[in-house]
Amino acid sequence: MQLDILNIEGKKTGRTIELPEEIFGVEPNNHVIYLAVKQYLAAQRQGTHKVKTRAEVKGASRKLHKQKGTGGSRKGNIRNPLYKGGGTIFGPKPHKYDIKLNRKVKDLAKISALSVKAKENSIIVLEDLNLATPKTSQFAGILEKLNVNVNGRKTLVVLPEYNDNVYLSLRNIPTVDSVMLSDINTYDIMNSNTLIITESAAKIFTEEPVEA
């Protein structure tokens, strides 16, 4: 998959980059994408929900009245779940929502997600961003020239490493997020409308793996 490298003015630099077909040109597997997104969203849940049972709420433990002879129903103590202020029956308890996925499944999900964006022509390779100082208006201007940050469409900027000036420049733009290439995940890819990959980050895809 060959893409033109654009400059911050949104124009072609005359350079191109060949992204590997085995990452950007496979047939997407929708089911593994679903599993990876499900795992990511499940991991965001704290699982700290908790209610008090009748053993934990305040109240006397004495029986309200004798078992028989009152003409009413049988009752225990005031902490009975049927009374206001009583305990909760079968309420939520703290637990984890983690879902285990094999590494190969997660890798296939990321490759499938990148291939989806490639098929949609939603990937832009941008020359490296060298911002002297953090400036949101400057970064917003770059996005405007690239014609990506319109009508609430989401943009994900993929960097080779953390860049403080870039992060501070885009963090106040609600529809834009950034991520290091090493931290990219299936949810971030699928949750964005456009993927902007900087030139240095894109070149990592083309590097030959080092043999051990």
Q: What is the structure about, briefly put?
A:
The protein is an alpha/beta fold.
Q: Structural class from helices and strands?
A: alpha/beta
What is the CATH C-level name of the largest domain?
A: Alpha Beta
Helical coverage, percent range: 25-40%
- Principal-axes shape call: elongated
CATH fold type of the largest domain: Ribosomal Protein L4, Chain: A
Number of strands: 6
Spatial arrangement of strands, main beta sheet = 2-1-3-6-4-5
How much β-strand is present in the residues? 5-15%
Unreliable runs? none
Major sheet attributes: 6 strands, mixed
Keywords: Ribonucleoprotein, Ribosomal protein, RNA-binding, rRNA-binding
Subunit structure: Part of the 50S ribosomal subunit.
Family: Belongs to the universal ribosomal protein uL4 family.
Organism: Chitinophaga silvisoli
